[in-house]
Amino acid sequence: MSNKTKKKMVTSQMAFSKYGSPDVTFERKWMTVIDFTKKAGNLKKLIPALPDRAYVNKDIVGPLLDALNNLIERNHRHELKTWDGCFNVRPKRGLNSMSLHSWAIAIDVNAATNGLGKQPTLSEGFVKCFTDAGFHWGGTWKRRDGMHFELSKI
Ligand SMILES: [Zn+2]
């Protein structure tokens, strides 16, 4: 990975300095419930794969809604097959650092067909809906994580 790419990514240290450790105090200050049935008319109706509600970091709400609106405007909404989670306090699988899911600033989608270390199946246009909205895609990593989108800055 080039330094240029590295610089663009949010590290777990950056997340620690902004949000603190992902505990109850963090949750009280930063976490919120997003109700997809009440956003943009009813996002859940247009993108049925969405849950009714999701528990997320306040910082991800704007970029996430932008990405979903991009999916609708650019006709990629049917490509979202499953919502596979956001908030999950855990180390990066097999690695010695915390996943950005620990602060709920990352989401996983279409996990069944975009497994860790596997060739991603998301279309370029679908991915661009997210990257244009302020996400970094895990599908470009050396150890590909095609299901994974995380905030590209905090
Ligand atoms: Zn992920």
Map the helices and strands:
Elements: H1 3-8, H2 12-19, H3 24-30, E1 31-35, H4 43-46, E2 53-57, H5 58-73, E3 106-108, H6 124-131, E4 135-137, E5 148-151
Antiparallel strand pairs: 1-2, 3-5, 4-5
Helix pairs in contact: 5-6
Describe this structure in words.
The chain is α+β, with helices and mostly antiparallel strands. The protein has one domain: 2-Layer Sandwich (Muramoyl-pentapeptide Carboxypeptidase, domain 2), CATH 3.30.1380. Helix content is 32%, strand content 13%. It has six helices and five strands, in the order H-H-H-E-H-E-H-E-H-E-E. The protein has helices spanning 3-8, 12-19, 24-30, 43-46, 58-73, 124-131, and strands spanning 31-35, 53-57, 106-108, 135-137, 148-151. The protein has a three-stranded antiparallel sheet. A two-stranded antiparallel ribbon has the order 1-2. Helix 5 (58-73) runs antiparallel to helix 6 (124-131). The protein starts with a helix and ends with a strand. The structure holds zinc ion. Zinc ion (ZN) binds next to strand 3.
Notable traits:
13% strand; binds zinc ion; globular; Muramoyl-pentapeptide Carboxypeptidase, domain 2; 154 residues; two-stranded antiparallel sheet
Please report the distance between the alpha carbons of the first and last residues.
21 Å
N-to-C order of helices and strands:
HHHEHEHEHEE
Report the C-alpha radius of gyration, rounded.
15 Å
SSE-based structural type: alpha+beta
Average pLDDT level: 92
Name the poorly predicted regions: none
CATH architecture: 2-Layer Sandwich
Residue share in helix: 25-40%
Q: Please give the order of strands in the largest beta sheet.
A: 3-5-4
Heteromolecules bound = zinc ion
**CATH hierarchy class name:** Alpha Beta
How many β-strands, per DSSP?
5
Beta-strand fraction estimate: 5-15%
Number of domains: 1
Give a short account of the largest sheet. Answer: 3 strands, antiparallel
CATH third-level topology:
Muramoyl-pentapeptide Carboxypeptidase, domain 2
